Amino acid sequence: MPPAKRILALLFLLACLAQAGAAPQAPLRVGIYQNAPKVFMNEDGGASGILVDLLREMASAEHWPLEFVACEWQACLDALDAGRIDLLPDMAWSDERAHRYAFHQVPVLHSWSQIYARPGSAIRSLLDLKGRRVAVLAGSVQAQVLPGVLAGYGAVLVPVVSLEQGFAMVGNDQADVVAANHYYGEASAKAHGLEATPVVFNPARLYYAAMPGRQPAVLDAIDRHLGAWRADPDSVYFASLRRWQAAGPAPAVPPALLWTLAATIGLLLSALAVASWLRTEVAARTRALRDNERKLSTILDSVDSLIYIKDAQSRFQYVNGALCRLLNRPAAAILGKTDADLFGPEQARMTRAGDLAVIEGHERYVAEECLNGKLYLTTKIPLVHDEEVHALCGITTDITPRKQAEESLRIAATVFQSAEGMCVLTPDAIIVEANQAFGTLNGCPASELAGAPFPPFSLESDGDDYRERMWDSVRYEQSWQGEVWTRRRDGERYPAWLTVSAVRDANGVLTNFVCTQSDISARKQADEKIVQLAYYDSLTGLPNRRLLYDRVTGCLGRHGRQDHVGALLFLDMDNFKDLNDSRGHVVGDQLLQQVAARLLACVGASDTVARLGGDEFVILLDALGPDEPQARQHAEAVGEKILVALREPFEVGGAVHHASCSIGVTFSTGHEDRLDDLMRRGDLAMYEAKRQGRNTLRLFHPSMEHEVTYRTEIETELRAALLDSQFVLHYQGQVDGDGLLTGAEALVRWQHPTRGLVGPAGFIAIAETSGLILPLGRWVLRTACEQLALWSASAATAHFTIAVNVSVRQFLQRDFVEETLAIVRESGIDPACLKLELTETLMIEGVEETIGKMHALREHGICFSLDDFGTGYSSLSYLKRLPLDQLKIDQSFVRDVLDDPNDASIARSVVALGKSLGLKIIAEGVETEAQRNFLAGIGCDHWQGYLFSRPVDARTLEELAA
User: Residue 657 CA to chain centroid, in angstroms?
Assistant: First the structure.
C-alpha cells in the first residue's frame, strides 16, 4: 500500500476510535405520528415534515442526537406521559393541555381546524352538521373542542385512531364528515376524494411539547431558534415553509450525513462480513423453523379432530389431514372453497352463523354441529391482527360416542365460563353448582349456594313467589324466561332477567335445570330515562306534547263509546316574557316549575297536566259528565280554581312575583272530533282570553274562527291588490347630525278600496306566510328605485339615499341578485344611493348564502343596513363577515332609552360596536329632542322618527327638503 494511503487509513481509524471512545449523549426521543405535511413517517420509514425539518436544524446546531419513534396520536400521548419519548411535535395549545404538558413560548406554526366532506354534501355551516357522523382523531384538540362547538346540533362524533382512518371512513361512507387541521386537510383531502367545507373553527397555535420539568433546556433552545428564525424572512424557517407548501413533503437530509459518509464507506467491509454471518444464522434458523413446521403439520394431521382456518368470507385457508380424509379430497382441492361448495347450502347457513359470531362479534364460539349424520363439537377462535379479526381457527371433534360425557362437560363449561350468573339445579330445584357471577348477584360466595333451593322471586316488585309455577312451566315447555324481581342476601330488591332450561338425557328423562340470571337494573333505569325524555318535559316533569296527544287520542275514542264529554284547558302565562327579559331565564324556569306544581294540585288524579313548551300548558279533564252543560260547569270550576291559585304570590329568585294566566277551554264528545281541531279551538279560546284583558277564562265559540277566515280573506284581497296596483310607497326622512335631510326609508302602504289606507302591520305578516311577499317586494324595490331616479334629477334631492326593507324570503330567492341589479339598471340610479335593509333573521336562515349575495351586490355599489339590530340573533362571528355600511338601533331600545338603563346600555353597545367595525349608526323611532340629544351624546349621528318626519308621500318629503 502506498504511504499516502496508509496515512489516510490510519487517520480514518483514529477518528473512528475517537468517536467510539467519546461518551455518547443520550438521544432526544421524538414521537412521530401521521399528520402530513407537518409531521409523518415517509415511505422509506424515516421521519419527515415541516416540524421534523426544523427540529433537525435545531439539533444540528445544539448537537442533539435525535431518535424518532413512530406511533399513533393517542399512543404518542401515552408514550410522552410514560417517558418513552421526550418530545412530541405538533401539539395544539389549550388550557387543559397547558396544565398537563410543558410548552415553549414561541409557536412553531399557526393552524385552524376545518370540516372536510365529499363533494356535493351541502355542508355550509354548523347547522348543516345536524345528525351527521363526524370523524375526529381521538385525544386531539378537535376531539376536546367539538363537543362544545356542536352542542345542540345533534351531530355524532366518531373517534378514530388516525387522521388517515378518518378521511378514509368519509370516503367509504362510514362517516359523513371529518374534522382535521387544515395542513393535513389540504395535503390529504383530494387523495380521498374530499373537499374542504366553509365550516372552520378552533384557531390554534402548534408547539413541541414535553412533560413538565423533563426537557427545560430543549424547550428554551427551541424558543431561541424560533425567535431568531421568525425575525429573518430568509431564515431556514421560512425556507422550510415555502419548500413544503410548494413541493409537498420531501425527506430531510440530516446535516451529519455528509460528514459520516466517509465513515460509512470505511465500515462497509465490516458490515458485509457481519451480513454474511447473519445470512448463515438466518439460514440455520429457517431450517429449524421448517423442521418445526413439518413436525406441527405431522401432529395436526394425526389428530382425529377437524382443524382448519377460514378467512373473513368463510373460505378455507388451511385444513388438516382429518378434514381431507372426511371429504376424501386433497388439501389443494379444499383450500379457497366455502362450506357451501363442500357441504351444501343448508349446512353452510348453519356454520356461517357461527363464523359471523367470531368475525363480527370478536368472541369465541362453541356449538354442536350435525355433519354427515354425526354430532360434532365445534370451537371457533378469532385470529386477531392489529385489533381486527381477519380469520378464525376452528376445531371440530366427533362427540357421537361420548354424548353423555359431553353433556356434563357442556353444562360445566356453560356455568363456569359465562360472565352471567348461572347455576345448575337438580330436578327438585336444588342448586348443584353455581358460578361466581350468580353468587355476586345473590350477595354471597358461590360455594355457599350449593345444596340450597333456588332463591324466591316474583313477577312484580311486590308480587307473590312465582317459583313453583315457573318450575311446572319448564317441566312442560322445556324452558322459561322473563323479567323477575328478587332479593340479595342483605334484602336489597333488584330486577333481573331469568332464563331457565330443562336438561334431559337420551331417554328424555329430566336430569337438571340450567338457570341464567342477570341484573337489569341499569337497563330498566335507561328505559325509564328514555320514556322520561320521550314523553315528559325535562323542566317541569309534566307530560310533553307527544304524551298529551296520545292521551287525548285515547280519550276521544273512549268518549265516543261511553257518551262522555271531556275538556281541554289551554293555559298561557300573562306577560311571562317580561319576567324572562327582566330577571333572566333561570328565574323564569323557577316560575314555570312552581306553576306546574300548582296546576297539579288543582286537578284530579285521572286528569293530565302537560307543558307544550315555553309558558304554554294544556290540561286534559277526562269524562266530566254525560252532557256538555255539566262538563262546562265542571271545566269552568277547575279553570277558576287555577286562576285563583296562580294569582297567589310566587317566591322566585329571592323575590316575590305576582303572575296570572289566560285560559281557553274547548270540549270533546268523541263524535267526529279530531285532535287538530281540538288543539286549534283551544288555542283560539286562549288567545281570546288574552284579548279580553288576560287573567281570565274563555270557552271556545265558533265565532272565534273569524280570525282564521279574516286571514284567508286578506290573502285573497292581497292577490287582487297586486293585480290592481293598490299599493303606494310613503317615505320617512332620515337626517344627519346637522339636521339635514339625507334621504328616506321607503314604507309600503295598502290603499284598500273599502278599508282605506292599511299599514304594513295589517298585511305584511300574511304576505310573508303566503309567499306574496315576493311579488310585493319586487314592486316596492322597483318603485323606490324609480322615485330615487326622479330625486336625483333635482338639485334639492340629488344627494338623497333611499332605504328599502328586504324580507328573508325575498333575499333568499335564487335569482335575487340578478333581479335587483336588473331593476337598478332599468331605473338608471346610482347604486351607491340604494340601501337594502336586512334583518337578523337572515343570520339564522342562510348565513353563507346571505354573505355571498351581499358581496355580489356590494361589488356593484349597493349599500346594506342591518335593521332591528340586537332584537334577534346577533352573532358577532357573522357580523364581522357581512359587508355592512350601517347598523340601525331598533326603536324598541330608543323608546325607553331615557328611562330604562338596560335600553341605554344596549344603545351604547350598538354604537360602540358599529364604530369599532367602521359602520355608520342610525337610530329609528326618535320622537323627542331628549332622545336625540342622548343618542348624539353616545356617538349616534343619524336619526329617523316622528321628531323629524312622519311617513309621507314623495312630494311632501321634497317640500321638507326644500
Answer: 39
* String of DSSP letters for 843-903: HHH-HHHHHHHHHHHHTTT-EEEEEEETSS---HHHHTTS--SEEEE-HHHHHTTTT-HHH
Helix (H, G, I), strand (E, B) or coil at 764: helix
In three-state secondary structure terms, 775 is helix
Report pLDDT for 841: 67
pLDDT of residue 1: 46
**Cβ neighbours of residue 539 closer than 8 Å, sequence gap 6 or more:** 589, 592, 593, 611
309, with CB counted inside 10 A (0-12, 13-18, 19+), is middle
**Rounded CA gap, 443 and 455, in Å?**
12
Q: In 469-506, which positions are buried (b, 16+ CB within 10 angstroms) versus exposed (e)?
A: ebbeebeeeeebeeebbbeeeeeeeebbebebebbeee
Distance CA 364, CA 344 (A): 25
Angstrom CA distances, 798 to 85, 741, 803, stand at 74, 11, 15
d(Cα 294, Cα 301) in Å, to the nearest integer? 10
Q: Could you tell me the three cell numbers for 154?
A: 345533534
What is the Cα–Cα distance from 436 to 419, expressed in whole angstroms? 9
Q: What does the alpha-carbon distance between residue 545 and residue 758 come to, in Å, rounded to a whole number?
A: 38
Mean pLDDT in order along the chain per 10 residues (962 residues) = 41 38 73 89 90 92 92 91 93 88 91 89 82 88 82 82 90 90 85 87 88 91 91 87 66 38 41 52 69 77 85 89 88 88 86 86 85 84 82 88 62 65 91 89 88 90 86 90 90 91 90 90 83 84 89 75 79 87 88 93 90 91 77 89 93 90 86 78 87 86 75 88 93 92 94 91 86 93 95 91 91 92 94 90 69 92 86 65 89 90 90 90 93 93 92 91 78
Q: Parallel, antiparallel, or unpaired for β 28-32 and 66-70?
A: parallel
Give me 164's grid cell: 388517515
Specify whether the CB–CB gap between 841 and 810 falls below 8 A. Answer: no
pTM: 0.38
Compute the C-alpha angle 490/491/494, nearest 5°.
115
Pairing verdict, β 66-70 and 801-805:
unpaired
- Half-sphere exposure at residue 469, Cβ-oriented, CA atoms within 13 angstroms: 8
Chain center to CA of 756 = 53
479 forms beta bridges with: 501
CA distance 461 to 465: 11
Residue identified by cell 270557552 is 699
Among candidate residues 156, 166, 178, the one with its CA nearest the CA of residue 72: 166
Q: In sequence order, which ranges of 156-255 are alpha helices (DSSP H)?
A: 163-171, 182-188, 216-230, 236-247
Q: Where are the alpha helices (DSSP H) in 896-952?
A: 901-916, 929-937
Phi, psi for residue 83 in degrees, rounded to 5: 85, 10
Q: Cα(267)–Cα(81) distance, rounded to whole angstroms?
A: 38
Q: Is 15:202 a contact under the CB 8 Å cutoff?
A: no
Cis amide leading into 37 (omega within 30): yes
pLDDT score for 178? 92
d(CA 954, CA 729): 8
Which amino acid, 340?
Answer: A
Rounded CA separation 204/111 (Å): 5
pLDDT at 20: 40
Q: Report whether 135 contacts 175 (CB < 8 A).
A: yes
Neighbours of 909 (CB within 10 A): 14
The string over 746-759, giving b where at least 16 C-beta atoms fall within 10 Å of a residue's C-beta and e elsewhere, is bbbbbebeeeeebe
CB 513 within 8 A of CB 498: no
